Each structure stands twice: as structure tokens, then as C-alpha cells.
Amino acid sequence: MMILPSLRTLTRSFDPTPTLRRRISTDLRQRSVVSSFICKPPRPSAGLMFALFKRSENQSNYPGKWGVCTGSIEATDASPLAAARREIFEETKLTDSDITFLRKGRPYRVKDDLLKTEWTIHPFAWQLREGAREMELDSEHTRYKFAKPGHLGVYDHVDHLEKGVARIAVSPQIERALSRLRNETDSGDEGFFSQSLKVLFNEVDRLRRLRDLQTSEEFWREFQWTVWHLAKNGRPGISASIETRLFDVLEKINGELLVHSDVHGGLANTPLSEVKSIVRYILKGYLLLQRKKNAKSYTATVETSDIQLSDSDTMEREERLFGDL
Prior knowledge:
Elements: H1 7-12, H2 18-24, E1 29-39, E2 50-55, E3 66-67, E4 69-72, H3 80-92, E5 99-104, E6 108-112, E7 117-128, E8 141-147, H4 161-168, H5 172-183, H6 188-209, H7 216-233, H8 240-264, H9 272-291, H10 296-301, H11 311-322
Helix pairs in contact: 5-6, 6-7, 6-9, 7-8, 8-9
């Protein structure tokens, strides 16, 4: 697992804004692509399994390698999600009656100096419906297999595929929480925010019990991803103010951790138990404020994020909070 830098590095190091970063890369050809992970219906014994496609030998890019359903975003595509649907149909003949949208992953950039290209990759996860038709491959691929994320090393796959997997993969607990939040449409935005806080609070306890999360950096990274998926994938059509409020929670925790980690010389040296206690304490405070929704403290402390941010401000904030993930 890639180790997260210290929190001071995360928040204070030079990190160009999206606009500046594009300027830096003007010597590279810019291409935006979608990358779709078509998953089997969940089985408790199997875990996440997604389709890997073997590229034909006559393909100009990555011939003979294994990858997922990928293609360029065209000018005629209404959105990256629309482009993903189009590519899936073109390459597999699957339609909305065969697959259901699970979630999107945070886009990321990779550079190919040989091709003088910088790729912006938009990852998506889809799930096959029960009774879905068999996939019919076009000439781009010769066959497909279903694989687990941990078995990627067995395959001679396209570059950076692990990064795409990490962007769409969530724990079974978060998978169930996202499904529940998507289906509880009667609760409204406030109910969604309260439920999201409870999910985060419970997630701290779950992460505390995981033996493979032994460092503060690993814990913080997993927690950041959980916030991102709740904000972006918790419920279609959620208002921007609720997403902003979830990011407010993360930023509040981030600030407190920065103060406490300074005492220890950085997040890497901060005891994991202390980090978790800080996160739990702040989440508990937000939960109490939610229960006192009509009190002045709620209005002053929580609803300040109802101020709408511009698109550029929102992008820069996401880069600040999630740029190193």
C-alpha cells in the first residue's frame, strides 16, 4: 500500500491547482478516457470480482494486455458517465437492462512520455444484473475473465490498472452503506447528512479493528476515501451543500490532526489511537449538533457551509483534501 505523506506535507506542500497543472502539461497531448469495471453481483464468499478483457494483438495501444472496458470521451458524449455507457455497449453489447451503475471513482491523471500524452481517467464501477446477457466482444478484445483485485499481479495488464481499482473499490460495509443511502430517498438532504455521519462514526470503529491498518497514514487514507465516496456516491442528485458539509467535516478533522501531529513531528509519528480518538471526538460533536438542529450552535457551526462555492473553488478544495490519494 502506498504510504500517505505526513499531514503537514499533505496540506502545506506546493500542490498546483488544476488550472496551473494543466498549464504545466501543455507540452503533452491531453486525452480524457473512461474506464469501466464491470462487476459480478456480490457474493459473500467471493468478494469483489470484475471483468478483465484481453486486448487484441492488432491494437495500437497495449496489444495483448489485459484491461477493463475503456475508451475516449467524445465531443458528442453528454458526460463521462454517458461515454462509459456508450463504450460498454460498443465493446460488450451490454445495456442498462444488463448492468446497473454502482459508483464513480475520483478521476486521476497519468502521463505517457513515449506517446507524449497525459491521460485523464474517469473510473466507474458497474454491476451485472441477475439474468444479464452474455457479453459479446467486439474486435478490440479476444476474451474476458473475472478477477479479484488482489489477483491483478497474475495478469499482464495495462499500466496503472491498480490505481483505477483503488478508486472504485470499497469495503463490503461501505458498499452496503452506500446502497442503503441510495435507497433511503425519503429522508431528504438533512437525513442523508445525519446518516453519513453515523456511517463515518461506525467506520472509525471498524477500521480500528482491522489488523492490516496499523499506521496512522493508512487509517487516514481509508477514512478520506470513505468521505469521498459518501459525498460523491451516497445518493444521486444530492445537493451541493450536503457534499460541501461532508467535506467541511473532513477539513475540520484535517485541521485538528495537523495541530496534534505537530507535537509528534508529523502524522507518521502520531499514535494511531490518538488519531482515531480525535476523529471520533469531532464526529460525535457533529452528530450531537445534528440532534440539536434548531439550536443556534447548529446554525452557526454546521450550516456555514451552505455558502455556495464556485466551480473552481470546489475543484481546488477537492485537490487540497484528496490530491495525494
